[in-house]
Amino acid sequence: MTLPPLAARHCWHAAINPLHSTIYFSPETAKEFAALGITDPVAVNLAHRSAAMGAVGAGAVTAAFYNYRHDLVARHLPAVWDAATPEQVLAARLRTTDATLRRLLGSETIESPELAEAADLAIRAAEGCTRHARVLYAAHADLPVPEEPHLRLWHATTLLREHRGDGHLAALLLADLDPLEALVSHTATGKGMSPKWLKRIRGWEQADLDAAADRLRARGVLDAAGALTEEGVALRERLETETDRLDAAPYEHLGATGLARLTELGGAIVRKALAAGAFPADLRG
Fold it and tell me: Other CB atoms closer than 10 Å to residue 106's CB: what's the count?
């Protein structure tokens, strides 16, 4: 890579993934999907993230999402497509994004030249993404790019988010971390979801999480208290480094100057969203 060390990772964590993720916890999402006849929060989550792939069933979604309990996915898919088509879900998701970002950011930020610039930079970065072996990215890359800057920015962060995510799954397989071990070790870093949210959104039971923690202890990844050991910290860093390598293309395409500017602009937008209460206070582990 020709970029400064960790620059792309920092941009993703500070400016890209949080902005994309605002809709997962938005009250506007529940309202829009209820109008389609989809009221279960898990069904809403599964539908709006998988809709770009079409009316797929549980097997494809469990594979693409990696760390959801298959029984939970099968409870809602493909049944959710009897309530609404993927096209209706995608339209509702865009309306949700519009309402959510307007509420969190305010009209001054929405209409600012800085947000429009961030959108242009993020779209430019996404031009460097690759489709092969990246199911969720490739599905979203087939969607039209919205015209309004705040929606273009969100669309671009979605592309960049799913591109990194698809590569991350490959890194998880190489690290020999199954879905639960990936989640539990991520929670132990302090950056992953808390057990409450893993059970609520991903469908796991406490016994599942406990069993994964036991396996990680046997590997020397967690200590007796459930914290990462020295080897566990090294494992998670190797995982992130491999993910960085697999996700380098869009940021190399953008270049160091553009990447720094996207981090600056996008980070400021994310901080405003965070200050407006974009996420639950107990989300992280």
Answer: 13
